[in-house]
Design a protein that fits this description.
The chain is an alpha/beta fold. It contains 6 helices and 4 strands, in the order E-H-E-H-E-H-E-H-H-H. Strands 1-4-2-3 form a 4-stranded parallel sheet, sandwiched between helices.
Length: 148
Amino acid sequence: MHRPLAILLMGPTASGKTGAAVELVQQLPVEIVSVDSALVYRGMDIGTAKPDAKTLQLAPHRLIDIRDPSEVYSAAEFRDDALREMAAIRARGKLPLLVGGTMLYFRVLQQGLSDLPPANRGVRARLEAEARDQGWQALHARLRRIDP
């Protein structure tokens, strides 16, 4: 698998990643791509350490505020979005600086995803109907019998 050249700055929330990234933007030809599963959602501004407007003006971050909180956003979607943004940054003659703490997102960029079958909505609907009729505990008990 081809992996585009990038700088990865990863760590837990409030560990100083954003400050370091802003410094790097001032000194190197880099552009920031957020690698944070909470920051993709609009309005998730409290408890997420989302950069404030002044910071975003000084050092714009891609992939922030791109989804409504009611929408699902998967690691596969992140991978597609991040690779697209990284290519756009490279096309501008700059280097992507990936900043965040969602290690699953970093992992899918570095290692890709396993080929899995698509979700089966019919099976999900059937199981949800059984759970409504029998309760989730009954379904869990059946699963323990089938696959201990």
